[in-house]
Amino acid sequence: MQAVEPIRDKRDIAKMKRILKRKSLRDYALFTLGINSALRISDLLALTVGDVADENGKIRDRIVIRERKTGKRKAFPISASAKKALTEYLRDRGACNPSEPLFKSRKGGRAITRHAAHQIISKAAQEAGIKYPVSTHSMRKSFGYWAYKSGHDLAVIQKLLNHSSQKVTLRYIGIEQDDLDDVYISMNL
Fold first, then answer.
1. Maximum distance among all alpha carbons in the chain?
2. Is 35 part of a structural domain of the chain?
3. Given a cut of 70, is residue 1 above it in pLDDT?
4. Do residues 5 and 133 touch, judged by C-beta distance below 8 A?
5. Which H or E run contains 65?
6. Considering the entire predicted model, what is its pTM?
7. Quick one: DSSP state of residue 109?
């Protein structure tokens, strides 16, 4: 499997959102929630309508899940941009049962597959003109990257991503290489 990168340019994130929204509100909501939650794709695809919306269809303030990989309970607030995307998507989707998969396949009542999600995100990245490898895992890495670039404490980001050390987190979000590259670029002797 090819290593993927975080999306390091907010203009590329905006381009991907526009491309995905134009094609499918479901895919737009998947990307917007993914990039704003740091959830692994297995956890995103396991979400039900009831995990994000109450019985009246109002988007909840928080998502509470048990992570599939770690078995740990995770509770986090839904960002304003993710709420907006989810609201648009669920309004367009119409009435649905709270136990239905949030990101439902067009072929039957199951959630889209990991492979389908990968294809959706990779294709949108290509259409956005992103030249480096991007897939569903890039959403999680991008969350960590932008949290770090926004000045959030590395220890908090490490905890959010369930990493064993800050060194692992820095390598995961590509900061170590960026820092090394900055030294080379700044040296104009």
1. 65
2. yes
3. no
4. yes
5. strand 62-66
6. 0.92
7. S
Catalytic residue among 15, 26, 140, 141: 140
Give catalytic status of residue 163 as yes or no: yes
Q: Which domain holds residue 86?
A: 10-150
Selecting among 17, 21, 40, 83, the annotated active-site residue is 40
Dihedral angle computed from the Cα positions of residues 50, 54, 58 and 60, in that order, rounded to the nearest 10 degrees:
-80
User: Out of 15, 83, 137, 141, which one is annotated catalytic?
Assistant: 137
Q: What is the pLDDT of residues 60-117, one digit of tens each?
A: 999 999 999 989 899 999 999 999 999 999 999 988 899 999 999 988 789 999 999 9
3-state secondary structure of 77: strand
Tokens of 97: 């049962």
Instruction: Decide if 85 is inside a domain.
Output: yes
Supply the pLDDT for residue 87: 97
User: Which CATH number goes with the domain that contains 88?
Assistant: 1.10.443.10
Catalytic residue among 69, 106, 107, 131: 69
Instruction: Examine the residue annotation and report whether 172 is marked as an active-site residue of this protein.
Output: yes
Q: Which of 28, 145, 148, 172 is catalytic?
A: 172
